[in-house]
Specification:
Elements: H1 9-25, H2 30-52, E1 61-68, H3 77-83, H4 85-97, E2 101-117, E3 125-139, E4 144-151, E5 156-158, E6 172-182, H5 186-194, H6 198-213, H7 218-246, H8 253-265, H9 269-276, H10 285-294, H11 300-312, H12 317-327, H13 340-356, H14 361-374, H15 379-391, H16 396-408, H17 414-424, H18 436-439, E7 446-448, E8 454-456, H19 463-476, H20 480-494, H21 499-515, H22 524-541, H23 572-581, E9 588-593, H24 596-608, E10 612-619, E11 624-630, H25 639-658, H26 662-669, H27 673-677, H28 680-690, H29 697-708, H30 726-730, E12 758-759, H31 771-777, E13 780-785, E14 792-797, E15 803-806, E16 811-814
Parallel strand pairs: 1-5, 9-12
Antiparallel strand pairs: 1-6, 2-3, 2-6, 3-4, 7-8, 9-11, 10-11, 13-14, 15-16
Length: about 800
């Protein structure tokens, strides 16, 4: 509310009495009215003199007529005339007497309210509370000054019709009134009116602007206008200084914009530059429209310094473009029809801001596209964006984002869009940042996976959909070769990703590509790359099935020199046993000895060997049967956990593939569809390296051999029982002779194939032969089936020294003759 000095009762009462005297004689001839009018003039003169001297004096006074207002649109002297002829005459007499004063007509609204009051001693009672305000204020010509002006108590000299209002029956009443303002106080009155809000400031400035260009007292209003502008600018400067010191908030930019524009209208360039310095943010659009109108009477060179300040207040490219585009009425283009100086200045500002903007080029391109779409494919923006993206072609997602938005802008010719695509797309395969999106995940876009690790939330990242949309646009515009090159480049870049990044970046891309229906017109080369992508996904995120390490069957040898069986020299039985123990690929040893003592000797030696057991069998035509088996040692204790984890990854991959649109996926993969869905690419290598060939007849016989050599409870017969059952064994039917035996089994610990060495013996030696010399003449062969399925070693014993041979490797190793 405006501030008022303390108003002495004498001035207000004198003014009320003088107006009352004029009203009494206003209908009389002029000579009868003259004394009353002179009295009113003297009172007004005393008021002016009191204002020049120190002391409390009212800035303005309000006189209310006894005329009820019927809410005419513009209350003026004619509206008073229609209601009361004498009031009209009174108004004219007041007008003649108020030289050096401003006189305005308006409607005063009185609102009466009843409030409950209590002082804590007496019972609560009702009190009247009245508020007054001007609802519209106009000069005598009907020009609007302000829409709303609150009136403090004491500013009304005569209440007139408003005194009859009853708060109970009529809580609101309106009446016609006049306000008398001394000329010297008029600017202060206007200044206080500007404090009531943006609308009040605009109305007052518009009123002064109108009065400065029309009427007979333009010079007076220009002086008032200039004083008001200076005062308001000074207020904004003080506020801005306070905000810099205390950071209390932004300035009221709309009134400031009106003030700056009216400074130009009044040709006050200095005040204009002072006003625009008070902007803390970009000026509102109304300011630039005012600047555009001011160009009709001011040269651009006069305003350019202030406009530079205004442009610097625009914090981003978007606000700067909107402002400058408003300045030229949407005419920013390569060939502007506006002033050459203005167009050059605008383009320079835009170019400087684009070069100095440290924002991500993707955001710059997004801004340019949004502005281009808003302004019907503005050619200037399109060319600037294209130039920007060519210079930042290494940031591939920026270009892709731009082209996707460009494709959807209405108003751009399809041929122009195709030309831009054909210019930028061939450059993309040479870029090295195609996975920029998945390597720079925005903060806050993470979620917890099933085991508690933080992974990017794919639903918050739009890059797979963005890239797939772009590839579809390229295929539509006939750029299939470029799509193939980009997918090749993407696959190369993806090779450097970790498995967890691959699953949430590349896999969504492959899903979206299939679901968009591009399979119908994607060339065969693109389909091949798609198949390789899925194979890479399986290899990276699932991996080859883990295999158990090959067991090492090597055992420490036993003492073969001067043993209990061969007291002198090297024992042939122990030597043969050591040959089996030190063989890393042999897991079992099937033999027959000539006597029970020899069987017992081998049994005891086996007990000395590490992790070996001996199973004794019946006496056959070969001799006393023995089966020595090496017990397996778990060489990979983590194998089971590894395989369980691999199975889990395999199931997750199968689930992800099942979510892809299967008809489109089948069309993309063609004959490779079943191969991918069954994950043969990661199973084939595993089968070759880890799979088991079908058991041979010899291996089947070896399995039954273990069962035949076992006792009733599935264990070998203890060697201590052999003497007692010796006679029983000798009376048993001898098995059908066989010159060759090949026995094998499967290790229960590893599932690997065991191997054996077979040594046939007779129960007695021919006359004249020792055991060693007799072994030189018989035809004896032993077959070893190793744990490596690709290698089969055959050891033949006869008149020559036997050798180990591996067909798979082509390597041979010397083998010692077995002599018992």
């Amino acid at each position: 509310m405006p501030t008022f000095r303390h108003r002495p009762i004498s001035i207000k009462e004198q003014l009320a009495q003088a107006i009352a005297e004029v009203h009494k004689v206003s209908h009389l001839p002029t000579n009868a009215v003259q004394p009353s009018r002179q009295l009113l003039s003297r009172v007004l003169q005393e008021w002016k003199e009191d204002l020049e001297s120190p002391g409390p004096t009212p800035q303005y006074l309000v006189h209310v007529f006894d005329i009820e207002d019927h809410q005419q649109e513009r209350p003026n002297i004619d509206s008073i005339d229609r209601e009361d002829q004498r009031a009209r005459l009174t108004f004219h007499q007041i007008l003649l007497a108020t030289e050096g004063f401003k006189l305005f007509v308006g409607r005063v609204v009185k609102i009466a309210t009843l409030r409950h009051r209590s002082n804590g001693i007496q019972l609560p009672h009702l009190e009247h509370e009245n508020t007054y305000s001007f609802d519209g204020l106009f000069d005598i010509d009907g020009t609007k000054l302000i829409s709303h002006l609150p009136l403090p108590d004491g500013s009304i000299s005569t209440y007139g019709f408003l005194n009859s209002i009853d708060a109970r029956s009529e809580p609101e009443k309106r009446a016609l009134a006049i306000i008398i303002i001394p000329e010297s106080e008029f600017v202060d009155f206007l200044y206080s009116g500007c404090e009531f809000g943006e609308d009040s400031t605009g109305e007052i400035l518009s009123f002064l602007s109108t009065k400065c260009t029309t009427g007979q007292v333009q010079h007076r209003y220009k002086s008032h206008f200039q004083r008001l502008l200076r005062g308001r600018i000074k207020t904004f400067e003080v506020r801005l200084s306070s905000q810099h010191s205390f950071d209390t908030g932004g300035t009221d930019d709309t009134p400031l914009a009106w003030i700056a524009a009216h400074c130009l209208a009044m040709y006050h360039i200095g005040l204009f530059e002072r006003a625009v310095k008070c902007f803390r943010d970009a000026p509102p659009q109304s300011f630039w429209r005012g600047i555009r109108r001011a160009m009709d009477w001011l040269s651009f060179e006069d305003m350019v310094n202030g406009l530079d300040i205004c442009a610097s207040r625009c914090r981003d490219y978007s606000s700067l473009f909107e402002a400058l585009n408003e300045l030229l009425e949407g005419g920013i283009c390569e060939q502007s029809s506006n002033s050459h100086a203005v167009s050059a200045w605008i383009k320079g500002k835009l170019q400087d801001r684009l070069a100095a903007d440290t924002k991500d080029p993707a955001e710059q391109a997004k801004t340019l596209l949004r502005l281009a779409a808003k302004h019907n494919g503005n050619d200037f923006l399109t060319r600037k964006a294209l130039s920007l993206l060519v210079s930042n072609i290494g940031i591939t997602p920026t270009v892709i984002h731009f082209l996707n938005r460009l494709y959807t802008i209405e108003g751009l010719a399809r041929s122009n869009i195709a030309a831009v695509f054909h210019k930028l797309v061939p450059l993309l395969p040479h870029a090295r940042a195609l996975l920029w999106w998945c390597q720079n995940v925005p903060s806050g876009h993470y979620r917890k996976d099933s085991i508690g690790n933080e992974v990017p939330a794919v639903e918050n990242l739009g890059w797979p959909q963005e890239l797939v949309t772009f590839l579809g646009f390229c295929l539509t515009l006939g750029l299939a070769d470029n799509v193939q090159q980009m997918l090749d480049q993407l696959r190369l870049n993806a090779a450097h990703l970790a498995s967890n990044s691959y699953s949430w970046s590349i896999l969504p891309l492959l899903k979206n590509f299939a679901e968009r229906g591009y399979s119908s017109y994607a060339p065969m080369a693109v389909r091949d790359i798609y198949k390789h992508f899925l194979e890479d996904y399986l290899q990276v995120c699932v991996g080859t099935e883990p295999r158990m390490s090959e067991p090492d069957w090597t055992r420490p040898p036993v003492a073969a020199y001067a043993c209990e069986w061969e007291h002198v020299g090297v024992c042939a039985d122990c030597t043969a046993l050591n040959h089996f123990l030190t063989n890393p690929r042999a897991s079992s040893f099937d033999c027959a000895v000539a006597s029970l003592e020899a069987q017992k000797h081998i049994y005891r030696k086996t007990l000395q060997a590490m992790n070996c057991k001996c199973i004794v069998g019946d006496r056959t035509f070969r001799g006393w049967e023995l089966l020595i088996v090496k017990e397996n040692i778990d060489v990979d204790p983590n194998y089971k956990a590894k395989h369980v984890a691999w199975e889990q990854r395999k199931q997750e991959a199968a689930y992800e593939l099942s979510k892809v649109h299967q008809p489109s996926l089948k069309q993309l993969l063609g004959v490779h569809y079943a191969e991918i869905l069954e994950m043969r690419s990661i199973m084939a290598v595993q089968t070759l390296a880890h799979g088991s060939p079908p058991p041979s007849p010899a291996q089947s016989r070896f399995a039954s051999r273990i069962q035949s050599l076992s006792g009733p409870n599935g264990v070998g017969v203890p060697i201590e029982t052999l003497p007692e059952i010796d006679d029983q064994r000798r009376s048993m039917t001898v098995q059908r002779p066989s010159s060759r035996r090949s026995l094998s089994t499967v290790s229960p610990q590893t599932g690997a194939h065991s191997s054996q060495q077979n040594f046939p013996y007779n129960s007695s030696f021919p006359q004249g032969h020792t055991r060693s010399s007799w072994m030189q003449n018989i035809d004896l062969e032993s077959t070893i089936t190793t744990t490596d399925p690709s290698a089969q070693q055959h050891i033949e014993y006869g008149g020559v020294e036997p050798r180990l041979e591996s067909p798979a490797t082509g390597l041979t190793a010397d083998a010692k003759p077995v002599v018992w």
